[in-house]
Amino acid sequence: MPGLPRTLCPVTSVLTFLDSLHPGWFTLLALVENVALVGLGALLGHVALRLPGARRLTPDPGLVEPLELALVVSTTVVNTAITVAGWWLWTGGVIVLRARLDLAAIAELAVLVLVMDALMYVGHATVHLRPLFPWVHRLHHVFADARPITLFALHPLEAIGFGAMWLVILAIHPFSVWALAAYAALNLIFGILGHLGVEPLPPAVRRHVVFRWVATPAMHVGHHADPRFNLGFYTTVWDRLFGTLEPGYDLRRAATVPEPYRGAY
Description:
One of its GO terms (biological process) is lipid biosynthetic process. It holds the Pfam family FA_hydroxylase. Keywords: Membrane, Transmembrane, Transmembrane helix. By secondary structure, the chain is mainly α. The protein has one domain (about 10-255). Helix content is about 60%, strand content about 5%. It has 12 helices and 4 strands; from the N terminus they run ααβαβαααβαβααααα. A two-stranded antiparallel sheet has the order 1-4.
């Protein structure tokens, strides 16, 4: 298999096993994986909602709506298809994976976060353009008072676009599976925390200089409260650069008790 080292480490064994699977069995495995990710995200979100000091910034969303559940199912199916497509590209040698955990893997994780943050800002700003918004992204903003699974409540075209962008990135460079796993975990954590409708981080953490640049959960909550602002995901860099950071974000971030978003109650 291209890109696999000869060492018999556990990661290599897993990759060898995945390479040997029948497409049907891998498709089933991919479906189970993506269903598990939705379940894990929901669980992590509900735990975070119960953290001491978590401050609600938007109203409780109440019961899950059928439309939201349908979109979550749709996104899970699309993500499964993207996973299978990635497997085909990997077994065909288009995507190359490395099994080693080394300094290069750490550098790759940093590059992935920065590159994906920039690309997702551009993509997010694009789907908020007036000609596109009603046809694609408005569906996600139906759920202004978000809950953990709202992360997965996407228009199918958005899910396909994100997945395609991810596959292109993977095809450009031979990434370490450790970097990919760490990025996937970070993406899930940021996504879930941004769709809680609360700020769970303690004031001392939010006030640290790191969180001037790293997005707090309140940042994406603010985007759902007012879609004109806070288009970034992992950092505030692009919002600060292009003037799309919500004007009260830094005050709310530093506040001992963050105020709910205006108009949220």
